[in-house]
Design goal:
Elements lengths: L5 H16 L4 H7 L1 H9 L4 H15 L2 H16 L3 H9 L5 H8 L1 H11 L4 H7 L3 H11 L3 H10 L17
Length: 171
């Protein structure tokens, strides 16, 4: 038998928590998660926050693939900000989306930005111009926010955090 590292066990625990908290299966998660993992890792978002947010979004977006796409587009908005988004970030004291994400995490950064423009759907849509990103952002800050936050917490089966950049590769 192959030895299983603590990191591998932790990743499995987080995935199991994601399946339990969300509306997805291990097979769906294993297929879809790589589509967001690399981008999240580059942006400094932890495995736990990525998986937990994904778990919450699967309840609102219909499928794991759709939730993963929406989450990826949300992260992309931070990596390649449009002028309105850049202006809102700068008003909060951040020159780069990556810096903001590394300091605050994804969900807090999204909340800070949406609060900075008053939180209304029209104002939020001006920040997150990509329709797929907006599909993720609205549940993250709207009426579903508590569910998404609870799902993020329930995927944390222990207190250690693994940066996605340290996840074992499949190559």
């Amino acid at each position: 038998a192959l030895p299983i590292s603590k990191d591998t066990e932790h990743i499995f625990d987080v995935f199991a928590g994601t399946v339990k908290a969300g509306q997805t299966t291990m097979e769906q998660l294993a297929s879809a998660f790589p589509n967001v993992a690399g981008m999240a890792g580059e942006a400094g978002i932890s495995l736990e926050e990525t998986a937990g947010t994904l778990a919450g979004l699967t309840k609102f977006l219909g499928s794991t693939d759709e939730a993963t796409t929406a989450l990826s587009q949300t992260i992309m908005t931070f990596l390649k900000p449009q002028p309105d988004f850049q202006e809102a970030m700068q008003s909060l004291g951040y020159e780069s989306g990556v810096t903001m994400l590394k300091e605050n995490g994804l969900n807090k950064s999204v909340k800070m930005l949406t609060d900075s423009v008053g939180g209304g759907a029209d104002a939020v849509a001006k920040l997150f111009k990509n329709k797929k990103a907006l599909k993720a952002v609205l549940p993250m800050v709207g009426k579903a926010m508590e569910d998404v936050a609870r799902d993020r917490k329930s995927t944390r089966l222990n207190s250690s955090h693994i940066p996605l950049s340290r996840m074992p590769s499949s190559a």
